[in-house]
Amino acid sequence: MRIRNEISKATDENLLFIANISDALAHPARLRMLKYIMKSNQKLEKVYTKTLVEEFGYAQATVSQHMKILAKAHLVEIKKEYKYTLYYADLGILMKYLNETKKYLNS
């Protein structure tokens, strides 16, 4: 019985992880911004709030809100550089999300 409870708890934690990441990715603007940040990071280009505002045409407040949601899901890391905000994609979390989702759907 104890093993079953531990397995159930692990499954619940995985489901919560999948649901939280899915929720963060549920908005098309966030998907586009995450993709842009990932590609920019691969080219070693810095991505600031201003960069995203100019690239996507959203207000600064809108970009900041979307980035906070992605950061809360650990998909994006936010760093301060003087008075500017930089964004970095966390590919490890994204890969974990994809793997956990695949495992869950195939179980």
Key phrases:
mainly alpha; 107 residues; two-stranded antiparallel ribbon; Arc Repressor Mutant, subunit A; 2 strands
Describe this structure as you would to a colleague.
This protein has 107 residues and is mainly α. It contains five helices and two strands; from the N terminus they run H-H-H-H-E-E-H. The chain has a single domain (2-106), classed as Arc Repressor Mutant, subunit A. Helix content is 70%, strand content 11%. It has a two-stranded antiparallel ribbon with strand order 1-2. Strand 1 and strand 2 form a beta hairpin. It starts with a helix and ends with a helix.
Fraction in helix: over 70%
Largest sheet: 2 strands, antiparallel
What is the number of domains? 1
CATH A-level architecture: Orthogonal Bundle
Predict the CATH topology.
Arc Repressor Mutant, subunit A
- Roughly what fraction of the amino acids lie in strands? 5-15%
Gross morphology: elongated
CATH class assignment: Mainly Alpha
Mean pLDDT: 90
Strand order of the largest sheet: 1-2
- Oligomer state of the chains in this structure: single chain
Number of helices: 5
Q: N- to C-terminal separation?
A: 21 Å
Q: What is the C-alpha radius of gyration, as a whole number of Å?
A: 16 Å
Structural class: mainly alpha
By DSSP, the count of extended strands is: 2
* Poorly predicted regions: none
CATH superfamily label: Winged helix-like DNA-binding domain superfamily/Winged helix DNA-binding domain
Order of helices and strands: HHHHEEH
